[in-house]
Amino acid sequence: MNKYEIETVELKAPSLNRNDLAYAMKYRYACKKFDSAKKISDDDWNAILESGRLAPTSLGFEAFRLLIVQNPDIREKMKQYGWGILAGLEASHVVVFLARKKSDLEFDSPYIRHIQEEVKQLPPEVDAAYRQKYAQFTTEDYKTFESERAAFDWSSKQAYIVMSNMMTMAAYEGLDSCPMEGFNQDKMTAFLGDELGLFDTNRFGIAVMAAFGYRDEKPHRNKTRRTLDEIVQIVE
């Protein structure tokens, strides 16, 4: 197998205890106060990153990138672009989920060519079929090329799937996380991208951020969710 392949074909169906995952999902909550002295081990963090790498994305285009901000000075300056003091910036790891912009999502862009030819290694006839369907997808079905914003919103959805996978893995490991939307996207992008040069703002924007670490608080109340009867509609 090449470096992009992940064994899938010969894997047997998992036989795991569903209660373990259910427990982890109940344990997880949006932690607002982290213990800054406790750091996630390299093994645990690599497992969290791998769960992000294995996340599904639309068309398998992986239209995201992970920017992990560990510099304390940068984190402190990030607070001024959030709602008050951004919760979570004292956590062990802070991830900025970057989503690709329209220029990178064009079928003939260097990025999509890399995905199709080097990562997926698709034969020409399959790639051609992708091209036809993608044109329909972007202009008629989901209209993701209707505007720059529509393209970015679509790639941001993929970044959220990645974040969800990572938060679930963290909970499974008994670690805590907090998704963060409480910040000004334009100002945070200008700071991290344009001012610090941590990413190319012509190709990427910030979709969302998340903190990972160990809680330094107890949850303030029990989790609440609507019942299944309220959220499920069955059509037979």
From TrEMBL:
Q: Which InterPro entries match?
A: NfsB-like, Nitroreductase, Nitroreductase-like
Q: Which residues form a coiled coil?
A: none
**Keywords for this entry?**
Flavoprotein, FMN, NADP, Oxidoreductase
The cofactors it requires, by name, are:
FMN
Q: Name one Pfam family in it.
A: Nitroreductase
Keyword NADP appears in the UniProt entry: yes
Q: Does the keyword Transport apply?
A: no
Q: Which GO terms describe its molecular function?
A: oxidoreductase activity
Domain of life, per lineage: Bacteria
Q: Which residues form the Nitroreductase domain?
A: 26-193
The record's SUPFAM superfamilies line, in alphabetical order, gives: FMN-dependent nitroreductase-like (SSF55469)
Regarding protein family, the annotation reads: Belongs to the nitroreductase family.
Q: What is this protein called?
A: Nitroreductase family protein
